[in-house]
């Protein structure tokens, strides 16, 4: 399957792209996608916690729905899905 | 009826929105939650534009370390209540509108009745627990909520309309541990002004609102990007309704 990943704000520099297309095996989950793109210690440290969970300051959405409500790292992916990665912004 | 000076105040926008539009703004009420970086920017432009009735609520007092971004206050205002100070300052900017400030801690209040007489709610808060309370009140009363938040060089804004868009809890079901983020003042200005623009567009029925999309501002790159967002049928707050 092919999945499109959009990077916003600081993640654009971190991944050196506005977006990328990834070809993943059928049945792939968010965990597999992050494993594929977090290919350096810096990328891993900014996206994942030491224990391997999604970093609390990172928002990941699939087709406009937060990954946290779709199973987190076990969120299933499907062909054509659009995954957005951006920082949690809480201030005002 | 229009006061002569009042019409001069709006002279440069009357060609754009007409007297009918100006009257619509004058008849409208906006509830602004937060008188910090976002709230000072949004409230300033809404007051200047002629929103007839504005209520600003905030629990905090002015501190000197607010002043890199909360530009309607002065160092000598330190210790004063923000909501009242901002309302006072803006009533000087536009004496033709009714503008009040109240010291309210939204996270510890039931504000459902308090927001019921307003046409739009502006989320200019600085923490998500309070935002969730505001979101519940907006849903209960069926009032649009113009959400925004910021951190560092980045900001986001979207207009959440009950029944037509996701609610705040659909988008951010969990939040990280509370902290005090660093922020550059102009980011608050940009995002607060976008909130004011959303409110004015909604009240006038002009243009396209930021509905079902989250606008993300990158101050370092000077770019604005959109993320499509959707309702969640399993949302514990709105149930996707």
Cα distance spanning the termini of chain A? 39 Å
Order of helices and strands of chain B: HHEHEHEHEHEEHHEE
Low-confidence parts of chain A, pLDDT < 50 over ≥5 residues? none
Strand content of chain B: 15-25%
Strand content of chain A: 25-35%
Number of strand segments of chain B? 8
Largest sheet of chain A: 5 strands, mixed
Distance between the termini of chain B: 41 Å
Please state the oligomeric state of the protein chains shown. heterodimer
Q: Percentage of helical residues of chain A?
A: 10-25%
Task: Give the strand order of the largest sheet of chain A, numbering strands 1, 2, ... along the chain.
Answer: 2-1-5-3-4
Rough outline of chain A:
globular
Which structural class should the secondary elements of chain A be placed in?
alpha+beta
- Percent helix among the residues of chain B? 25-40%
- If helices are DSSP runs of H or I spanning 4 or more residues, what is the number of helices of chain A? 3
Whole-number average pLDDT of chain A? 97
Helix-strand sequence of chain A: EHEHHEEE
Main sheet characteristics of chain B: 8 strands, mixed
Provide an overview of this structure:
- The complex is a heterodimer of chains A (92) and B (241).
- With 92 residues, chain A is an alpha+beta fold.
- Chain A is 23% helix and 26% strand.
- Chain A contains three helices and five strands, in the order βαβααβββ.
- Chain A has helices spanning 10-15, 30-37, 41-47; strands at 2-7, 19-23, 58-62, 65-66, 82-87.
- Chain A has a five-stranded mixed sheet.
- The model of chain A has no long low-confidence stretch (mean pLDDT 97).
- Chain B is an alpha/beta fold and 241 residues long.
- Helix content of chain B is 37%, strand content 20%.
- Chain B contains eight helices and eight strands.
- Chain B has helices spanning 4-9, 11-26, 37-49, 82-93, 112-115, 128-141, 168-171, 185-204; strands spanning 29-33, 53-58, 98-103, 120-123, 145-151, 154-160, 213-218, 223-228.
- Chain B has an eight-stranded mixed sheet, with helices on both faces.
- In chain B, a hairpin with a 4-residue loop joins strand 7 and strand 8.
- Chain B is globular and about 55 Å long.
- The model of chain B has no long low-confidence stretch (mean pLDDT 96).
- At the A-B interface, strand 4 and strand 5 of A face helix 3, strand 5, strand 6 and strand 8 of B.
């Amino acid at each position: 399957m092919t999945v499109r990943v959009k990077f916003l704000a600081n993640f654009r520099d971190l991944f050196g792209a506005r977006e990328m297309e990834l070809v993943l095996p059928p049945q792939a989950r968010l965990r597999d996608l992050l494993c594929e793109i977090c290919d350096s210690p810096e990328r891993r440290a900014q996206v994942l916690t030491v224990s391997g969970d999604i970093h609390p300051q990172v928002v990941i959405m699939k087709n406009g729905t937060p990954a946290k409500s779709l199973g987190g790292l076990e969120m299933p992916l499907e062909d054509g899905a659009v995954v957005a990665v951006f920082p949690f912004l809480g201030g005002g | 009826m229009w006061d002569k000076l009042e019409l001069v105040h709006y002279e440069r926008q009357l060609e754009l929105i007409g007297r009918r539009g100006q009257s619509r703004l004058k008849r409208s009420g906006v509830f602004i939650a937060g008188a910090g970086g976002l709230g000072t920017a949004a409230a300033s432009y809404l007051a200047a534009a002629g929103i007839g009735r504005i209520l600003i609520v905030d629990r905090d007092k002015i501190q000197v370390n607010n002043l890199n971004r909360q530009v309607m206050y002065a160092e000598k205002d330190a210790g004063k209540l923000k909501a009242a100070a901002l309302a006072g300052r803006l009533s000087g900017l536009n004496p033709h509108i009714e503008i009040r400030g109240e010291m309210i801690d939204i996270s510890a209040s039931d504000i459902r009745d308090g927001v019921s007489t307003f046409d739009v709610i502006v989320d200019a808060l600085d923490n998500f627990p309070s935002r969730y309370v505001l979101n519940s009140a907006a849903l209960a009363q069926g009032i649009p909520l113009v959400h925004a938040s910021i951190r560092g060089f980045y900001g986001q804004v979207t207009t959440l309309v009950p029944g037509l868009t996701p609610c705040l809890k659909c988008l951010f079901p969990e939040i990280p541990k509370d902290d005090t983020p660093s922020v550059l003042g102009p980011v608050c200005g940009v995002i607060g002004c976008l909130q004011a623009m959303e409110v004015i567009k909604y009240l006038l029925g002009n243009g396209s609102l930021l509905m079902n999309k989250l606008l993300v501002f990158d101050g370092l790159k000077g770019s604005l990007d959109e993320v499509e967002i959707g309702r969640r049928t399993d949302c514990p707050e709105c149930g996707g309704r």
